[in-house]
């Protein structure tokens, strides 16, 4: 599957870019915005394939040498600039400018994709601005950003803006059934977690993430020994910090599902449909105010962890509290206490 065929639910954006290629009105710079996992890089790569492909211009065949090299990220006329240690530095932008100053190897387009454009240093942003101010020939720069408000207004003003759309849950579920062979129930769960983002759905569909999800849900759904289960889960998550964001999202959606179940919403409106009976059972144990408070505590904990709170202390406090939502303890104070403790 090549070019724009790898995108779903973005028909208007695809048609806009295809028309730009066909009409010969490709802008020299695009700002592609959207939430993490929304498909920004997928769209940028598909656009590059459609520009370079000689077999199916405007669409991309996905099989020719140009399409395959772009997909592999090693086309001589395409440059991808990712953050290094969390920042895009001036030397990286200078290398991009040097590539753009050269004649294209294949005699056609030159393309640059800046991933996480909002992470550019001030020096890098000013250097890129000069490149945007002096467009030349068949060259296009695509800036990908989750936080476009952090970019210089002068950079934004020189780009055509493309905002990724959230994809309907059923479209993502159908994609997962077709491409990953998921059952309808599993596809619905992963699509619900992805929250309209196809790239995030693909990430969550990996075996290691599915296994992690089941581990967390089993602990949350436990009827007995919930406190011990909570502490065991905290220890496991503490040992795997890269899984924390994913884990916090699963916990948050579990609690929101409890609220929906308590409100009498039908099963197909919740994310963790395969645990509907457990959700209904737990929702009857606690007042809705206690469940809402737990949602806020998960958000507090996630913010604290991003602010470098003591990871184990924060996880112990949160998960042990979630084992009994009627507990009167305030985990928020623990997060505050742990902020200076590191991980």
Descriptive terms for the model:
single chain; 343 residues; alpha/beta; Rossmann fold; Zinc Finger, Delta Prime, domain 3; 2 domains; 5-stranded parallel β-sheet; 16 helices; 5 strands; 54% helix; disordered C terminus
Structural account:
The protein is of the alpha/beta class. It folds into 2 domains: 3-163, Rossmann fold, CATH 3.40.50.300; 206-341, Zinc Finger, Delta Prime, domain 3 (Up-down Bundle), CATH 1.20.272. Helix content is 54%, strand content 7%. The chain has helices at residues 11-23, 40-52, 65-72, 90-101, 122-133, 153-156, 169-180, 184-194, 198-204, 207-221, 226-238, 244-262, 276-283, 288-306, 311-322, 331-338; strands at residues 29-33, 78-81, 110-114, 139-145, 160-163. It starts with 10 loop residues before the first helix and ends in a 5-residue tail after the last helix. Residues 337-341 have low confidence and may be disordered.
Query: What is the overall shape?
Result: elongated
Uncertain runs: 337-341
**Main sheet: strands, sense, barrel:** 5 strands, parallel
Q: CATH-wise, what's the superfamily of the largest domain?
A: P-loop containing nucleotide triphosphate hydrolases
Structural category is alpha/beta
Q: What's the number of structural domains?
A: 2
Radius of gyration: 23 Å
How helical, in percent, are the residues?
A: 40-55%
């Amino acid at each position: 599957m090549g070019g724009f065929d790898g995108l779903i639910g973005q028909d208007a954006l695809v048609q806009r870019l295809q028309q730009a290629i066909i009409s010969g009105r490709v802008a020299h710079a695009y700002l592609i915005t959207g939430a993490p996992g929304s498909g920004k890089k997928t769209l940028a790569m598909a656009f590059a394939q459609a520009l370079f492909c000689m077999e199916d211009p405007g669409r991309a065949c996905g099989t020719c040498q140009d399409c395959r090299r772009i997909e592999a990220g090693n086309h001589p006329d395409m440059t991808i600039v990712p953050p290094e240690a969390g920042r895009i530095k001036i030397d990286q932008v200078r290398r991009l400018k040097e590539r753009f100053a050269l004649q294209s190897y294949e005699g056609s387009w030159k393309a640059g994709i800046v991933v996480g454009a909002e992470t550019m240093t001030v020096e890098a942003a000013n250097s890129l601005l000069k490149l945007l101010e002096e467009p030349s020939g068949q060259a296009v720069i695509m800036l990908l950003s989750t936080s476009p408000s952090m970019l210089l207004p002068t950079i934004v003003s020189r780009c055509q803006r493309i905002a990724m759309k959230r994809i309907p849950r059923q479209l993502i579920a159908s994609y997962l059934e077709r491409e990953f062979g998921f059952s309808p129930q599993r596809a619905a769960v992963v699509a619900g977690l992805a929250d309209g983002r196809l790239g995030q759905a693909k990430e969550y569909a990996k075996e290691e993430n599915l296994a992690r999800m089941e581990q967390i849900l089993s602990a949350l759904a436990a009827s007995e020994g919930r406190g011990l289960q909570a502490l065991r889960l905290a220890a496991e998550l503490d040992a795997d910090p890269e899984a924390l964001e994913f884990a916090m999202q699963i916990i948050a959606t579990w609690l929101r599902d409890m609220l929906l179940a308590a409100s009498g919403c039908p099963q197909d409106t919740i994310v963790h449909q395969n645990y509907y009976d457990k959700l209904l059972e737990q929702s009857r144990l606690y007042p809705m105010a206690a469940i809402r408070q737990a949602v806020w505590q998960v958000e507090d904990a996630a913010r604290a962890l991003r602010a470098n709170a003591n990871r184990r202390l924060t996880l112990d406090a949160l998960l042990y509290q979630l084992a009994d939502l009627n507990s009167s303890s305030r985990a928020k104070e623990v997060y505050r206490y742990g902020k200076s403790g590191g991980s």
